[in-house]
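User: We ran a pulldown and think these components assemble together. Before we commit to crystallization trials, I'd like a predicted model of the whole complex to look at. Sequences follow.
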Amino acid sequence: SYELTQPPSVSVSPGQTASITCAGETWGDKFVSWYQQKPGQSPLLVIYLDYKRPSGIPERFSGSTSGNTATLTISGTQPMDEAEYYCQAWDTKAVIFGGGTKLTVL
Amino acid sequence: EVQLVQSGAEVKKPGESLRISCKVSGYTFSTYWIGWVRQLPGKGLEWMGIIYPGDSDVRYSPSFQGQVIISADKSINTTYLQWSSLQASDSAMYYCARHQIGYTFAYGDSWGQGTLVTASS
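Assistant: Here's a predicted model for the assembly, 227 residues in total across the polymer chains.
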C-alpha cells in the first residue's frame, strides 16, 4: 500500500522558516494536502492541491512538491504555529495520511 | 457557514454496539463526500472511509473494511459511523470531515469537533 513518510519532529526558532517534508514512493499526478492539528482540536486544512491555501490561512504557509517529496513551508514561524502537521494524498480511491510531524517553536 | 456537528462522547462496554453521528449544515449535503477519521490516543490520523450521501456510495479503508459501517440519511443531513461489537482497541477520537474528491486528489476542507469513544469493561 502507498505510504507517506514524514519526520517525527522539526524544531524552529520564532521568526525563522520551518520546512516539513512528506516523501512518497512515487508521486505521479497525486496532489498533496496538509493539515495542522493543535492539542485538543480537530485537524485544520492549511494547504490543498499541493500549494493552495484555504481562505483564512495565513500567507506564511506554503506548499510545494519536487520529485517524490512534498514540502510544507512556514515562513516567519510564530509560536502559535506549534502543532502536529500531517500530509495527505489520494491513492487508488483511498485517503493516505503521513505519520505526522510535531513542529516545536522554541 | 459549513458546519459539521458530531454527537457526544460515548462510554460503552466491549461487545456493545454503537452508532455515532455527524450532522452537517451550510451546504447541500448530498453533493459532497463525508469521510471518517480515527485518532487513537496520542497517535496520528487514520482514514476509515468515505460516503457520498447522494447515492450512498461508500468506500472503506482496507484496515476498517468489515469492522465498521458508514451510512447516511439525506432527510436529516446526517452521516453515521457504527460498530456492531466494540472492542477496547476502538477507544479513540473519531472525526468526520467534508471531502473534496477528484480523480487525483482528496482533501477534508471542513471537520467536525470529534467524538470520543471509550470502550472499557
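The mean pLDDT of chain B is 96. That may be worth checking against your pulldown data before setting up trials.

User: Thanks, that helps.
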